[in-house]
Design brief:
Layout (H helix, E strand, L loop, with lengths): L1 E5 L18 E6 L1 H8 L6 E4 L6 H10 L3 E3 L8 H11 L4 E5 L6 H16 L5 E5 L3 E6 L2 E6 L6 E6 L4 E7 L5 E6 L9 E2 L4 E6 L4 E6 L2
Parallel strand pairs: 1-2, 1-5, 2-3, 3-4, 5-6
Antiparallel strand pairs: 6-7, 7-14, 8-13, 9-12, 9-14, 10-11, 10-13
Length: 215
Amino acid sequence: MIINILAGGPEEQLPELKSYLENDVLWVGVDRGVYTLLSYGIEPKMAFGDFDSVNDEEMQFIHTKVKSLRIYKSEKDEPDMELALTWAVEQKPERIRLFGATGGRLDHFLANVQLLLRSLIEEWSSSIEIIDQQNLLYAVRPGTHQIKVDEQKKYISFLPIAGAVENLTLSGFKYPLKDRHIPATSTLCISNELIDECGTFSFTEGILLVIRSKD
């Protein structure tokens, strides 16, 4: 099972949502993302938020269409996305994809990246991705990982997000590395590209944020 979560980020940053309508997918809406899903003809299984970004007419429409609606006060400890993601993780899906999680407010975007990091530190069972019109982001633990060519997103960047990364090796890339120490503040691994159909990257310590981007 896959759970797709749509938050309230700018609609112009969204990919084509209907390309993610697999049979084994559950959709979840967050705040204004609930209304956006409904406007695309997608009825979410669950909806979360304080709904401070929708007007009264839009909220009434949401009430008529969504059966499972969890409304929270604006003054709370967790952002709406975190509340939705916590529920999604409890369902134990194979993958969780976050949409509408970039653009707009930087604090919200950085908080969503923090959730990627948290998923690894707490060893959640689901893999989590952030996807927008131009980028796909995910975080990985130490080990050896494969990555395939995607002509739509040919640029690949690696950023350390939990301290230094040790012994980073890149094989099959335009700019290869061998057992390289990557400090926490390094920008060395921005905008690489694959030269093989499938490349590998490996490291022994730290956590990497992997970003695949269009031109």
